[in-house]
Every structure is written in structure tokens, then in C-alpha cells.
Amino acid sequence: MNAVSPAALRGGRPHAAAALFWLHAMSLYNSLRQRLLRLRQPKYLFGALAALAYFYLIFGRRLGQDHHSNTVHTVFTLTPAQSVGLGALAATALALLTLGIWLFADGRARLAFSEAEIAFLFPAPLTRTTLIHYALLRAQLGIAFSALLMSVLLHRGAALGINRLHYAIGYWVLMSMGQLHELGAAFTRERLLDLGLRPWRRRALVAGVAIVLALACWWSLRGVLHLPQTAVLADPPALLHWFDGIAGTAPLSWLLTPFRWAVAPLFATDASAFWLALLPALGLLIAHYLWVVRAQVSFEDASLAFARRRAERLAALRSGNLRERKPTKPRGEPFRLLGTGFAPIAFLWKGLIAMGGFYRLRSFVIAGVALFALCQWLAADPARQPILTVAGMIVAMAGAWLLMLGPMLFIARLRGSLQTLDILKSAPLPGWQIALGEVLAPWAVMSAVTWLLLLVGAQVALHGVDHAPLAPNLMLEVAAGVAVLAPLLCGLMLCLPFAGMLYFPAWSGSGTAGGRGLEVMGQRLILMGGYMVAMVLALLPVALLGGLIWLLGERFASPQVGALLAGLCGAGVLMFELVLAFDLLGRRIDGFDVAQELR
Question: Which backbone phi and psi does 9 adopt, to 5 degrees?
């Protein structure tokens, strides 16, 4: 941009702050205008409508009900005493978070500019203070939107009986203060580094001060520090009162005072208490701002390096990697690839190498042995068996998440195959072999993770459940049957998003550019809804036919025979669906015109 708004001119000289404000406002305007213009395309229009419908169903109806009924559903109404206790708990968490910033945060002082902003702003005749103001102003939009979302849409403050506007202001003050503290701490660490204080010495100094203060607090808390009783644990107000009694003892109360000031506006029970609590919080916010402005150091080189790393990380995500991968040496092959054989095995070999050295058979075998030994150790002692039960609940949730959303983790990797599909089609391979080869690597990893979860689940069912619904031998048979069905089910689930990308490349391809916005969110919601519907339709014949066979087998033979026949029937149906899925994917790949479909 070379033009400057006339409003940014004063006496013929451009005023830097006004020019940067105009630049940011015009950038937002152009971004909004671009998104409105692309609504002329059906894929973005339907995506925006789906996102708006989603927000209305989740938030709009609730806001309308609250507006008409003038009532807000609250968890419990805070009293002034409970507000003090909740503030003490939040202040302690904030103090520990601040200590972690000074202990573990590392890296040079930098501002989160993009490469384009660095190329435009850094050569300009702007002071560092102006650049800091620009970065802070840009971050305020996200903080303000987050405060609005938390207070108005998610009812965070109203759930505790707190005024929503007061909660939004308090949330904004706290988040802005946290942003300024992180920046000021980075500037201070940079100054200490310039003075010769190395990071390990700074960490040792901070840790030493923290240990001395912790010992001083413990010495004064010897008489009041005790575990809460069972009745107190079951009563949240009583638990808050118990914690406030500990946090209100000097010198711990002195150390927590600034942190209490920072969080106090969030828990004010009335208007007068809010305005009284807001004054110290604003004072802390202003003090943090002055600290950042006065402690500023050179951040240009670190900001440039950070922008470059962020661009490389984004490119890695677009190519299907969860993080940027820069191997320092060639990766070993997962297995020896023969010169001849079944062609999809070569795709599996290539995919496992691309995923990294962690995804190897030996890694999953070691993990399985370790998990089995850990479960046996927990089951050996009755006092440790509740931990095994909790682990079973976690495994059940992880298994459901892996089945429903696990294939979505591999969408970026599968989407990358669309970009090279013209090269793959030039090989003398039928389309179904290309489809099978592209799915094999994530299929193998997903199946291995499912088997690990099933191994833990079987151990929990045998040792961690007091009243198991099935006999141990029958439970092992069920686990073995599920282990046979799990890979087939994982392969079928991976075929669904791959089919969505092949049949609707324009919709699924928008995510390759890291698109953001309401319309892109709506597209993902539509694709997710289609995936869920297809998953239900694929599993419905398996459930109906398998359940019917199990009932007939149990009635005329035994439960073991019924479970065996149901498992064989379910495996047969899944195999038929897998063959049909790869045949359809192969036909689509054979007729896929890369030049036309990916425009």
C-alpha cells in the first residue's frame, strides 16, 4: 500500500499512529469485502448459511429465550463471601501461570508480525514504540471478540449470576494484562540476556526466590493447612471458604494481592463491587503498559525468524503434517520394499516414511507391552484398581473419538494426494489400487492405535470392574472379535472423507489454503455432517444384521456361538462395504480430471 488516508495527514506529514490505524481498518474492510464477494459462489454461500444456522441453533435460540423470559440459568448465585473464595482460587492459578512464564518461557523477544507486515512496516520510518502499539491494537480485536463470545454467547458470567457486561469488561482487562505481561517478560528476559545473565541462571534465580517464598508461606500455614473433609468436598461454597481461609493467611495473602486485583472484576456480585474492583485492575493494566513501552528492546530479527517459522509451520499443516518436519538425517524405511509385488504396499512404505520414524511396528509393540505391564501393576493392588477404572473411562472416550473424528486428522494428508493425482494416474495402475495405496498408511496407524486402546480396555474389563456383565472367558472372546472388526471399521471410516474429497474437490479443497471465516467453517460443518450421515448408513447394516444373527445364535445354540456368528457376519458385511468403497473410489479416480476439478 502506497496511499495514505487524508485523515492521517497533519501539516503535510503522515502521522504514524493514524496511518497504522487506517492501514489496519482498511485491511479488515478488505478482508470482510472479499468474504462477502465470494458468497456469489455456491460453495461459500451454502457454507455461510450452514454456519449461521449452526450459531442460531447453539446460541440464538438461547439468547431469544433469555430475552423473552428475562431469566438466566445459573449454576449457583455467588454471595460476596463465595466471590472472595473464587477470586482466591483464580488468583492462585494466575500466580502459578505467571511463575511458569518466568521459569519456562524462552526465546528472544519478538512481536507476532506476518512476513508481509514485516516487509511493509520494518523498513518504514517507524519507531519501535509505534510498532508495539500496532501489534497491541491488532491483538485487541481478538481479545474483545473473545470477551463478547464468553459473556454474551456462552453465558460464562451469567452462569454464576454475574452481570454479562461486567464479566466482559473484566475478561478484557485480564486478557489484555496477560498479553502485556508476556510481552514485558520477553523484553525483560532480553535485557537480562544482554547484561550477561544466561537463561539457566535466570531460571535458577526465579526458582530460588519461589522456593524461599513457598517455605515462608508454608511456615505460616502450618496450623491451618489441612485436607478438606468429605462433606466440604461435596459442597462447593464450603470448599471455596476452606481455600480462602488458606489463601488469606499472611504472607501468602500479600503475594496474592496483585493477582486478586487482576481477577476481582470477573467475580463482582453487584455494580458497586465491580467498579471498586475495576480501579485496581485498570491500575495494573496501565502499569503493564508502561512496563512494556519502557522495557522495549530490539525485536526485529526475532520477529522475522518467528514469521518465517510460522509460515513454514503453516505450509507443513497444509501438506498434512501436524508440525514442521526437518529431519537431520535420512529416515529409515519401515520395512524392506521388494522390487515387485502388490503395488499398494509401495504406497504404504512411502506413507510410513513420510509420517516419521515414530510410526513403526516396534513403537507400537513397545507401547503395547508397556501398557499391558502398567495395567497388570494397577490391577495387582486393590487400592490402585480405581485408577484402572478411570483409565477405562478415558479409553472408552478415546476410542469413540478415534472412530468418529480420527479420520479427520488424516484429511490433509489424503488431500495432498489430489495435487499429485495426475502423476499417479500416469502409472499403469487401476484406480482402486491408487485409492487403496493412499489409504493404507493412515489405515495401519489408526488400526494400531485402536488395538492399543482395546488392549487397555480388555484389561480394565477383566480387573478394573467390580461387577463385570460377562464372564472373563466370554469377555476375552468379545475383545478378540472386536479386534478383528476394528481394522475393517477403521478402513471404512477412512474411505468416507477420501470419497468426499474426490467427489466434492471444490468444497474440500478450500481448506488447503488455511482458509478462515464463517463460510469456510460452514463448509466444514457440512462435510462433517455428511461424514456422520455416511458413517451411520455404513454401520447400520452391520449392526442390524449382526444383532439379528447374535439373537438367533443365542436362542438356538449358546451366547458364544451367537457372538462368533455375529462377528463373522459383521466382518463379512464390512468387507463387502470396503470392496464396494474402493471400487467406487477407483472409478472416481479413473475419471478424475485434475485440470478441471481442482481449478
Answer: -100, 140
Q: Which three cell numbers stand for residue 323?
A: 508440525
Three cell numbers, residue 417? 494426494
Listed residue (98, 95, 97) closest to 247, CA to CA: 95
Name the residue among 536, 535, 568 with its Cα closest to residue 549: 568
Separation CA 409–CA 331 (nearest Å): 23
Q: Alpha helix locations (H) across 410-471? A: 411-419, 421-425, 431-459
Q: How far is 551 from 546, CA to CA, in rounded Å?
A: 9
Global pTM reads: 0.62
pLDDT in tens, 498-521: 887 788 776 665 444 445 667 777
Cβ neighbours of residue 413 under 8 Å, at least 6 residues apart?
320, 321, 351, 354, 441, 442
Dig out the grid coordinates for 496 from the structure. 468416507
| 3-class DSSP assignment, residue 9 | strand
Q: Is there a contact between 495 and 582 (Cβ–Cβ < 8 Å)?
A: yes
Pick from 524, 506, 496: nearest CA to 584: 496
* Tens-digit pLDDT profile for residues 191-228: 888 787 888 888 888 889 989 988 888 888 877 777 66
Would the CA dihedral through 323, 324, 330, 335 be positive or negative?
Answer: positive
Cβ(519)–Cβ(45) under 8 Å? yes
Write b or e for each residue in 365-375: b if 16 or more Cβ atoms lie within 10 A of its Cβ, otherwise e. Answer: eeeeeebeeeb
Return the pLDDT at 286: 94
Q: Which residue has the cell 428475562?
A: 70
465 with 392: CB under 8 angstroms?
Answer: yes
For residue 301, what is its C-alpha cell? 530479527
Rounded to whole angstroms, how far apart are CA atoms 354 and 331?
9
